[in-house]
Amino acid sequence: IAGWDEIHEYYNRQSKKYPAEKFQHAWASMLEVLKTTPKKFTKKMFAQLLEQAAATNSRITKAIFESREKDYKNPFRRMVYDNQQEMDTVIGALKDNSFILQQQQESQTFLQTIGNIRSRLSV
Q1: DSSP strands (E only) in 42-123
Q2: Could you tell me the mean pLDDT of each successive run of 10 residues in the chain, 123 residues long?
Q3: 95 by DSSP, 3-state: which?
Q4: For the CA atoms of the chain, what is the radius of gyration?
Q5: ∠ CA 28-32-35 to the nearest 5 degrees?
Q6: 116: buried, middle or exposed (CB in 10 Å: 19+, 13-18, 0-12)?
Q7: Residue 70: what pLDDT?
Q8: Is 68 in contact with 97 (CB distance < 8 Å)?
């Protein structure tokens, strides 16, 4: 049984190191993709990356809504229902779609975080 305790302790130590290792890998990957070094990485570059992340997030959130909206407007999907009310009763209204609402909330939180980072950096 002592062996099990050692195994659990090993994995506990590894899990505590994981966030730092994940950050280091992301940092190294980003520098490689940007073809730059830590010394050449500037606030301005970081601000541009934040803007790109915000724009990408907004596009994805919009595309999620449009994709689900398309499903709701599909004539083949709609033809099994007598009317819009029946369709909304069976599959739920588009405006109440939990996946869309979750994505919109996550996007809003992400964009607020980016705004907070930018204001702290004064960029």
Answers
A1: none
A2: 85 96 97 97 95 97 95 90 92 94 98 95 82
A3: helix
A4: 23
A5: 135
A6: exposed
A7: 93
A8: yes
